[in-house]
Q: What sequence folds into this?
């Protein structure tokens, strides 16, 4: 009744190609962004920051990156944790070597380092395909983590082998280190995700995004119609690793404040991000964000309901949580293999006709 | 030079035997991938679950004891007496077969015809569920597994050659050989084995000549469950039954890549190459670059190898058409 297209006339190609063609969507999007930027910073407290908002934003960034590679270009990667580690260690080295450097620049440069590494590990994708490639990307995961643990230069030869984020401010406001205010770190990460989600959306519907999708749908056919597979695959690896590297930098510098290679960037992270992308919806920017939100909120919710509200013993609650998350993943895959984004599309289709479905 | 070094040969032998252990896990992957095109990430957790169940039966634990005692307020954790090893193994086999049936009914049937990545993700979800269930059923503590296999260094080999070889690894090698022979005989000379190969060749053609896909999948997952039980027994006897047992799946993946996802001999040969390769590399190159190279060496080796042969050693040639 309220969600409808009636009365909306498109008079230009631009209007036809708009991301939000329906006014209701446009306003909804603006409202969400306004709440995120203008309301949440006033309400946020350290618990919400550490347990919900920062994890969501960091993983949203990583999921955007992985979705570009897996959802748009069709190359399954299990090396996300490794590339996040590249971003984190690059961020650490930049922060300690160039003290004057503003934090946004550090994060972007860290992303670029990860992109360079991503191109190197993307090279095999020209020969290796499908599950062989997925397993091959695990090489990146294990090798990079090993490298960061063994070579002292990466962690400035600190005795513990840990990296700790020094205090840095941006425009006079602390964004890293132990004395940050929740709203500052939140707004910093939110701005990054907001800007780069917009960039990703526009990349994927432009020329380069179309070449990725052509490769995904059938690489030989794409090659025949003139898509250069070398360029398409390597650019997908580069852009994807750029996003994942930035996510790693934010994970280390802003969210956790300290990291230790093997613990922080284990293969678990690679799987979690892949889950986010698949549950959210392959090949959908909105899906990456929803997937990240879903999988960061779910464990928090379970923990609160089972252990805190119902007062179950923590070990039983922890095991049940693992079972429930696994079962939910299977349930979602069975009910909607194309993810929450597809579910959302179906809901919108229904809403257009509601309350007269015929 | 190092060919005359007895230490080198000792490393090679221990590498070969470790490779056999990897192959045991890789075998389960290959069986399922061949028959249903599913990359079953849960194979490692299958091994863990099988080993946990076996230990649980052996020592007479009450399943879900912790949960039940918490709900009912009682404190019963064991039946009082365990089962003899052989009976426990039979019961564990039955559990794995039942589990295979559940997996096929609940997870695979609704996902027929989905893309490979979706099925792969579903098996990761399955791994989560099994891991949690295993812990909840039998407790998360480390358990010793003793099924009466010989342990410790073999004296005869030390006397003859001066090499230090674990008896357990020799028995693992023997078991692996028996397993492969049994699987080959089964798939070549039985009616059911022929049906399995037909399904592996072409799902639709197999369906059209009247082979029930669901039954075949059940059988294949049961066999993979049995292979997982064997792998679980071997690894459990070696390093105790604990969560890290499920991580052996990560050791089996490069073996699969190297040998080809669809080849049983590939799983064996790949396992041997990787077992020897990583031990020798760690011995001669490891000290120069900081050690602990076992984590990634196998993956790098497989990656480089695949650059020259994208389908692995014995994998089916990948033919692509538009």
A:
């Amino acid at each position: 009744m309220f969600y409808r297209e009636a009365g909306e006339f498109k008079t230009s190609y631009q209007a036809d190609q708009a991301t939000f063609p329906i006014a209701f969507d446009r306003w909804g999007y603006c409202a969400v962004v306004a709440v995120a930027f203008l309301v949440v910073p006033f309400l946020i407290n350290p618990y919400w920051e550490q347990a919900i908002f920062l994890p969501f934003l960091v993983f949203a960034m990583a999921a955007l990156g992985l979705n570009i590679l897996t959802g748009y270009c069709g190359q399954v990667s299990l090396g996300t944790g490794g590339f996040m580690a590249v971003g984190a260690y690059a961020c650490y080295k930049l922060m300690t070597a160039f003290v004057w450097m503003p934090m946004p620049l550090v994060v972007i440069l860290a992303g670029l380092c990860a992109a360079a590494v991503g191109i190197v590990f993307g090279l095999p994708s020209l020969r290796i395909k499908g599950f062989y490639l997925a397993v091959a990307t695990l090489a990146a995961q294990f090798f990079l983590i090993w490298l960061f643990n063994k070579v002292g230069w990466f962690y400035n030869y600190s005795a513990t082998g840990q990296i700790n984020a020094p205090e840095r401010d941006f425009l006079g406001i602390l964004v890293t280190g132990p004395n940050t205010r929740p709203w500052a770190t939140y707004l910093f990460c939110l701005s990054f995700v907001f800007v780069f989600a917009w960039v990703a959306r526009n990349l994927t519907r432009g020329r380069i995004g179309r070449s990725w999708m052509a490769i995904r749908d059938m690489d030989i056919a794409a090659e025949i119609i003139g898509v250069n597979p070398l360029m398409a695959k390597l650019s997908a690896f580069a852009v994807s690793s750029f996003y994942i590297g930035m996510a790693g930098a934010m994970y280390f510098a802003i969210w956790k404040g300290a990291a230790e290679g093997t613990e922080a960037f284990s293969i678990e992270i690679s799987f979690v991000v892949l889950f986010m992308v698949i549950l959210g919806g392959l090949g959908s920017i909105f899906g990456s964000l929803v997937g990240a939100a879903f999988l960061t909120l779910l464990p928090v919710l379970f923990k609160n309901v089972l252990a805190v509200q119902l007062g179950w013993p923590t070990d039983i609650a922890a095991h049940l949580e693992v079972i429930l998350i696994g079962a939910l993943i299977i349930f979602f895959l069975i009910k909607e293999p194309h993810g929450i984004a597809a579910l959302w599309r179906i809901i919108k289709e229904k809403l257009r006709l509601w309350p007269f479905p015929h | 030079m190092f060919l005359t070094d007895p230490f080198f040969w000792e490393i090679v032998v221990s590498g070969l035997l470790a490779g056999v252990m990897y192959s045991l896990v890789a075998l389960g992957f290959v069986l399922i991938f061949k028959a249903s095109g599913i990359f079953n990430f849960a194979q490692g957790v299958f091994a863990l679950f099988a080993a946990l169940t076996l230990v649980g039966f052996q020592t007479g634990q009450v399943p879900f004891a912790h949960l039940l005692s918490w709900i009912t307020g009682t404190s019963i954790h064991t039946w009082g007496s365990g089962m003899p090893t052989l009976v426990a193994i039979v019961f564990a086999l039955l559990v794995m077969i039942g589990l295979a049936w559940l997996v096929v009914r609940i997870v695979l049937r609704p996902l027929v015809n989905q893309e490979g990545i979706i099925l792969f993700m579903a098996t990761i979800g399955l791994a989560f569920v099994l891991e949690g269930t295993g812990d909840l059923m039998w407790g998360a503590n480390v358990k010793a597994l003793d099924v009466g296999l010989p342990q410790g260094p073999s004296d005869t080999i030390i006397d003859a050659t001066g090499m230090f070889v674990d008896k357990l690894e020799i028995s693992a090698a023997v078991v692996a050989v028996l397993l492969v022979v049994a699987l080959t005989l089964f798939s070549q000379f039985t009616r059911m084995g022929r049906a399995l190969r037909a399904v592996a060749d072409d799902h639709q053609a197999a369906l059209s000549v009247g082979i029930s896909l669901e039954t075949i999948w059940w059988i294949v997952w049961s066999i993979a469950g049995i292979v997982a039980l064997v792998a679980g027994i071997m690894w459990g006897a070696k390093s105790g039954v604990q969560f890290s047992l499920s991580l052996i799946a990560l050791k089996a993946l490069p073996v699969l890549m190297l040998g080809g996802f669809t080849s049983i001999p590939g799983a064996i040969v790949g396992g041997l190459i990787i077992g020897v390769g990583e031990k020798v590399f760690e011995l001669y190159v490891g000290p120069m670059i900081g050690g602990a190279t076992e984590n990634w060496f196998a993956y790098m080796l497989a990656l480089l190898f695949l650059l020259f042969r994208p389908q692995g050693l014995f994998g089916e040639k990948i033919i692509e058409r538009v």
Notes: Chain A touches chain B through 50 residues (CB under 8 Å). Strands of chain A lie at 163-164, 169-170, 173-174, 258-259. Chain A is about 70% helix and 0% strand.
